[in-house]
Amino acid sequence: MLCETCRRAPADPTRPSDGAQLAGLVAQALAAYGGALPVRVSRTRCLWACKRSCTAHVRARGKPGYVLCELEPTAASAQGLIEYARLYAESPDGAVPFKTWPDAVRGHFLCRIPPVLEPRDTSEEHP
Predict the structure, then answer these.
(1) By CB count within 10 A, which of 1, 29, 62, 127 is most buried?
(2) Poorest-pLDDT segment among 44-48, 53-57, 91-95, 116-120
(3) How far apart, in whole angstroms, are the C-alpha atoms of residue 56 and residue 27?
């Protein structure tokens, strides 16, 4: 998920936001793979990391999520995000060894968000 409203200071309000530019570059780079990667890109209006723009959230069901920030709206950042997301998606638990991280994402991790746990069925515990 990419924040499409991120703007790094000083920002030109007449141009698309840095976040929108990065989201577009990620979508273009992902399209070049022709659907061969287990990665889906979505946009959100805000990830509340405005002072650390551009921001992305990598997540999958049953795995911890990771928020990356202070990314550049460049093709290199877009490719690095896609590569990291691919490694993350292919890992059984969301852990990607540091030595395999693309250079474009190193030093850009803000936080790790624990996975959402599926609610237990308690219908038989409490009649």
Answers:
(1) 29
(2) 116-120
(3) 13
Residue 90: count other Cβ atoms within 10 Å of its Cβ.
Answer: 11
Tell me the residue type at 71: L
Residue 96, number of CB atoms within 10 A of its CB: 21
> Which of 8, 24, 1 has its CA nearest to residue 70?
8
- In tens, the pLDDT along 39-66 reads 778 888 888 887 888 899 999 888 999 9
Using the 8-state DSSP alphabet, how is residue 99 labeled?
Answer: G
Surface-to-core class of residue 79, CB atoms within 10 Å of its CB (0-12 exposed, 13-18 middle, 19+ buried):
middle
What ranges do the domains of the chain cover? Answer: 2-113
Q: Which of 108, 94, 15 is nearest to 59 (CA)?
A: 94
Residues 6+ apart with CB under 8 A from 27: 41
Six-digit token string for 62 = 């049953």
